[in-house]
Amino acid sequence: MYKRSRSNITRTVLTLGGTIGLVVLVASLWGRTALFVGLGIALLLTGYAYYSSNRLVLKAMRARPVSQPEQPVLYRIVKELALAARQPMPRIYVSPTIAPNAFATGRTPRNAAVCCTAGILELLDERELRAVLGHQLARIYNRDTLLLSIAGALSGTVSLIGILGYTAPIVADDDQPNPLAVLFMAILGPVAAIFVRVPVSSSIYQHADADSADLTDDPLALASALRKLETGVKAAPLAPEAAIVTQAHLLMVNPFRDGDGISRLFLRHTPIADRVRFLEEMAERG
After folding, report:
1. Which of 139, 120, 137 is nearest to 128 (CA)?
2. Which residue has the higher pLDDT, 17 or 229?
3. Residue 283: pLDDT over 80
4. Residue predicted with more confidence, 113 or 157
5. Pick from 238, 273, 229: which is nearest to 256 by CA?
6. Checking DSSP bridges between strand 113-117 and strand 102-105, what pairing results, if any?
7. pTM of the predicted protein model
8. Residue 68 contacts residue 35 (beta carbons within 8 Å)
């Protein structure tokens, strides 16, 4: 378990370095002065992504920290799993949204946080919740959250103008989106999605599933949880809001309705059916 930590740290460094290089390269086309301006912007962008990345998804999901008396079961499960993994215990948050989901964020295990929505706490039984939390802790200890959080922060910064323009209540006379906003999104959306789709492999979810199954010794519990989450998301999907779209890859399952607009560009989740099949095969192998 937790063998991908070094690889994810390397990929994070390459992602940040690649971002700086790309911005500087584009800026250099306008001359030496623009090159230095571009370098400054690139350093600010990557610095912001690194130091703010762990807070963005918590803010987007309106999550708040909870104490042991508030969530005794949730607190106990996380503590037991962290002890079993011989790793630091993350901070615990709860999001008020009814859409069932969970996520983890943080640059290192010592400043990490794990969050469950109100919807998932109502939907899953304790065995299934334990498996989902095992998945989230696996992401933290493998430094998946480092890579995922920074990729989301970079993507969110690039796409902010385009997504806000696309979703802003500025419409033409025929109730169609503002043509200028659509143009911004057509250009910036795919560029922003690159920051998620290039460094973040869809296999990251399956690897964390496997680590959760090893940690809890219960792959079928996670398979059951994923089936419930798939049904739950269909019943209560999140709206593809600007702040959430670029952070959605951090969530346990795709939080949007299938085919929801710009969100399709950013999705990296492995299909639920494939993840369930993988877990059932693990259970059969014992």
Report:
1. 120
2. 229
3. yes
4. 113
5. 238
6. antiparallel
7. 0.77
8. no
Backbone Cα Rg of the chain: 19
Q: How many residues does the chain have?
A: 286
Average pLDDT over residues 162-177: 47
The per-residue DSSP string of 97-138 comes to -SS--EEEE-SSGGG-EEEEEHHHHHHS-HHHHHHHHHHHHH
Q: Using alpha carbons, select from 184, 61, 192 the residue that is nearest to residue 120.
A: 61
Secondary structure, 3-state, 191-234: HHHHHHHCCCCCHHHHHHHHHHHHHHCCHHHHHHHHHHHHHHHH
Residue 174 has pLDDT above 90, yes or no: no
Query: 240 by DSSP, 3-state: which?
Result: coil
- DSSP assignment of 267-280 equals --PPPHHHHHHHHH
Residues 6+ apart with CB under 8 A from 109: 87, 88, 90, 140, 141
Cβ atoms of residues 255 and 237 within 8 Å: yes
Res. 233 pLDDT band, cuts 50 70 90:
very high
Higher-confidence position of 208 and 165: 208
Single-letter residue type at 5? S
Contact indicator for 240, 263 with CB cutoff of 8 Å: yes
**Residue type (1 letter), 222:** L
How do residues 19-78 score in pLDDT, each as one tens digit?
667 666 766 767 778 778 777 877 776 777 677 777 888 998 999 999 999 999 999 999
Residue 84 token pair? 């079993």
φ/ψ of 227, rounded to 5, equals -60, -45
